[in-house]
Design a protein that fits this description.
Layout: H1 3-17, H2 21-34, H3 39-52, H4 55-70, H5 85-105, H6 111-145, E1 206-215, E2 218-227, H7 228-234, H8 245-253, H9 256-262, H10 264-272, H11 276-289, H12 294-299, H13 307-313, H14 318-331, E3 336-341, E4 346-352, E5 364-367, E6 393-398, H15 407-420, H16 428-441
Antiparallel strand pairs: 1-2, 3-4, 3-6, 4-5
Length: 449
């Protein structure tokens, strides 16, 4: 595999995530120029062409990506097998139809989407007409029947008569706040009654955030409402006034103001599954999916942000993301620690496990937070220092239960190491196994360590 091609593809991935498709197109084109058999780069180039409306070019790129994978994976010099003309024609028609719909109605609106929108609009109009009719009838019902309290319009009664009605009595209208968004999306907005009075004034600058995660290949989302006013108040805290690494990190986790507004996050995760260990997996994936803050790293002036700030900024470096994950796992009731590698200037998270699964006899399983990786996998190659060689300083955060089902990740991590040790070219069976692990844990090749 050509190193320059990998670098170009990674740059293209960054531009694609930012929806800077023209720049992504140039990067992917450079990647396939450097390595014409790079299947992943051809696929990404096809996706970018598709977004930009280049139908024929997109089909050609998808053909090459499939052919090079079928020929044995990227870098395999085997002859390219062309797809049957019929399947190619079908694919072309599908892509062209989608592009026509996109050009006519915008990038997020296909024919199917427009049909659903028209159906929803018609249904909404019927509901509105029904409600208006009901309100008109209810408004004048007292006048027609002469019975007080049977309508929405207040009906005048004689002095001294009780005008209140009990719950469920005819004529009572109970207003409910409608739920926003699809029923499958969890809304974790704070209940004002759960927030101490002095903190309520900080609920300014509301920002809606959506945090993705992957659980055994299935994708989900946790939505949070965060407040800039709360983040500004938290920024006034000075954790660096504490003496000692352990006390300083603990301050980031044990902050009453932060707890008052962030305790909905572990509750949101619990709503996703009743399995406690799967709640851990969601939390780990959610934090791993948060982008790494390259700008802070390049500036060289790092002042660690609190978990609330990291979530609001939707980015962080290794120590910030590790503190965030330690906070969530602690709130989920697990024994958790920070693993501080002074020699490599790196921080990871440890979760309490049985001794046979522990990292370097620490009593904790290793969890990388900077990018999607398998729990217990501490053998990644880091751009700055290669593999971790030193023994970490263990900084306990909280006592709690053990991650009992970690053997699933342990076995997958062993298989992941085996597959990666085989080099850049894999046989068909091993390549399928490697792709399966990527999907299961949300690993994006070429964008990790």
């Amino acid at each position: 595999m050509d190193a320059g091609a990998i670098d170009w593809k990674e740059r293209g991935n960054e531009y694609y995530k930012q929806k800077r498709y023209e720049e992504a197109l140039r990067c992917y084109a450079s990647a396939v120029k450097a390595d014409p058999l790079y299947a992943d780069a051809w696929h990404n180039l096809g996706m970018t062409c598709r977004v930009l409306g280049y139908a024929d070019e997109a089909v050609t790129c998808f053909e090459r990506a499939k052919n090079y994978r079928n020929a044995g994976g990227s870098g395999d010099p085997a002859p390219v097998r062309k797809l049957p003309p019929l399947s190619l024609d079908i694919e072309r028609r599908q892509i062209r139809q989608e592009l026509q719909d996109t050009r006519k109605n915008g990038p997020a609106c296909t024919v199917a989407v427009r049909k659903r929108k028209r159906s929803r609009t018609a249904f909404a109009l019927l509901v509105v007409l029904f409600l208006v009719s009901a309100m008109v009838v209810a408004a004048f019902l007292p006048l027609l029947t002469g019975i007080p309290g049977t309508g929405i319009v207040p009906f005048q009664v004689r002095s001294g008569t009780e005008t209140r009605v009990s719950a469920g009595q005819p004529g009572q209208v109970i207003a409910k706040t409608p739920a926003h968004g699809p029923a499958s999306v969890l809304n974790t907005g704070q209940d004002p009654g759960s927030i101490p009075g002095p903190y309520l004034a900080m609920k300014t600058g509301a920002v809606s955030k959506s945090f993705p995660y992957v659980l055994r290949g299935g994708q989900g989302t946790v939505n949070l409402t965060l407040y800039q006013g709360v983040a500004n108040e938290i920024a006034k805290e000075d954790p660096y006034s504490y003496v000692g690494e352990k006390d300083r990190y603990q301050k980031f986790i044990d902050l009453p103001l932060q707890d008052a507004f962030l305790d909905t996050l572990p509750d949101a995760i619990r709503e996703k599954t009743s399995n406690p260990d799967d709640q851990v997996r969601i939390a780990v994936s959610l934090v791993q999916q948060i982008p790494y803050d390259q700008e802070i790293l390049k500036s060289g002036t790092l002042k660690i942000r609190y978990p609330y700030q990291t979530l609001l900024n939707d980015k962080g470096v290794c120590c910030e993301k590790s503190v965030l994950l330690a906070y969530i796992l602690h709130k989920l009731g697990y024994g958790v620690a920070l693993l501080d590698f002074d020699a490599e200037q790196h921080t990871a998270v440890g979760i309490r496990v049985a001794p046979e699964f522990a990292y370097k006899n620490t009593g904790y399983a290793f969890i990388e937070t900077t990018t999607p990786l398998i729990i217990t996998d501490g053998n990644g190659d880091y751009p700055a220092f290669g593999r971790i060689r030193s023994v970490p300083e263990v900084l306990p955060v909280a006592e709690g239960k053990s991650f009992g089902s970690v053997s699933e990740e342990w076995n997958d991590a062993q298989e992941w190491d085996r597959l990666n040790s085989l080099g850049p070219t894999l046989g068909r069976y091993d390549y399928a196994a490697w792709q399966g692990l990527c999907r299961k844990y949300g690993i994006v090749p070429g964008t990790g360590l």
